[in-house]
Amino acid sequence: QVQLVESGGGSVQAGGSLRLSCVASEFPYKEYCMGWSRQAPGKEREGVAAIDSDGNTRYADSVKGRFTISKDNAKNTLYLQMNSLKPEDTAMYYCAARRSSGICYGLIFGYWGQGTQVTVSS
For residue range 51-106, what is the model confidence (pLDDT) as tens digits? Predict the structure, then answer.
């Protein structure tokens, strides 16, 4: 089972940017769909972004045009660049994976890291 460790969270004012990173213990990118989920207080966890083995990406409507997911297979690392942050982006962000022959089925994952907190103030 892949182990995922996130970093890069913090506090920022609205309109600011943060870059999250996730190091995976193994990164057989041809086998996994990788991505990010988030969970705000009192809300269910939701998928934010995903990237498949070919590098194709997909995003939740709420973050399209503001967030960018990318990966570096050589470094076993996944990234989430978050720009134009809004207070409603405040949440615990989780690196996520799904073993699915590298195909992403929506923003659905089966494994998550411990999370990194992102707080956006107005």
Answer: 999 999 999 999 999 999 999 988 889 999 999 999 999 999 999 999 988 899 99
Q: How far apart are CA 2 and CA 37, in angstroms?
A: 16
Give the pLDDT score at 63.
98
Q: What is the pLDDT of residue 70?
A: 97
Distance, C-alpha 48 to centroid of its chain: 6
| DSSP codes joined into one string, the chain | ---EEEE--EEEETT--EEEEEEES---TTTEEEEEEEE-TTS--EEEEEE-TT--EEE-TTTTTTEEEEEEGGGTEEEEEE-S--GGG-EEEEEEEEESTT---TT--SEE---EEEEEE-
**CA dihedral (79, 94, 98, 65) positive or negative:** negative
How far is residue 33 CA from its own chain's centroid? 11
The Cα 53–Cα 90 span in angstroms is 29
- pLDDT tens-digit series, residues 5-20: 999 999 999 999 999 9
